[in-house]
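ok so i was messing around last nite and threw this chain in just to see what happens. nothing serious, just curious
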Amino acid sequence: MRALYLTAPGSIGNLQVGELPVPEPGPGEVRIKVEAAGLNPVDVSFIQSPSGHPDWHWPHVPAQDAAGIVDAVGEGVEGFAVGDRVANHGAISAEGSLAEYRIATAETLAHIPDGVSALAAAALPCAGLTAYQAIVRRMHVQVGQTVLVTAAAGGVGGFAVQLARLAGARVIGTASSVNHEFVRSLGASDVISYRSENVGERVLELTDGRGVDAVLDVVSSESATENLKLLVHTGSLAFASGRPDLETVPPFSTAPSIHELALGAAYDHGDSVARKYLGSELEVLAGLVAEGKLNPMINRVATLEEAPEALAEVGARHVQGKIVIDLS
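result:
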């Protein structure tokens, strides 16, 4: 099969296109004929790591997010059959999606509804699921609340803005000035230029000194710690890029709830129930796309040969929305 694979860890420059053996599904697994693969910053982080992932073997095919057609089914698989259109968020430790075929655990699969393209479905898994778990499952954002979303023009942030708005919340986003119009188009009522404005001061101005009910921080531990100060009493903060320092909040004061987001840990530290959430929640997201309620935010579509350049762009963390690789 044709694939883009990593010959050694440490650099995007170690990626090359070539032929690899077609994998076979084991018990509880399916083989997907990949039509599209979504790219995410976590993919780049492991590619550029000096040792890659400890479970990787060489050559290794990167990228977690895939959409395509079930091509073969392993023993014991229920609910999926050859010919089904599916999307999947795969384990970072496993062989990835930048290939004609990939293996996926059936319990993490999602059916792609009619009217949703493989490209749109491939844009959803990692970023969409992270946003869904933050806004819907962990922080339970509700009508009338105010939510702060950092890096709101990116994949996770952009999906979070949309999901919070769908929940009936007011959304304040942070983004560079060139992305303000885009973030507003996703549903944010206000956008703060994080480079030229003090985010905390601006949030308090926009909320008449009250603060926000929820924060999604995907920037850093330092950013998450600063944003803790903006929460109202019993507010929630979800983070994906670094834990906040809770010592900055006096005990028994604002009483915040803190939520760590770690999709991949469902494979390494979760059980079957945790992994099935990846599939069921991905089906919810795909359904919202089918209903026209969620924009998959595809910035551009690239070929397999263009994937290294696209991965470098994703790694720079200034992509508006999502880049998807077309393997159809």
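not much to say yet. The two ends are 13 Å apart (CA to CA).
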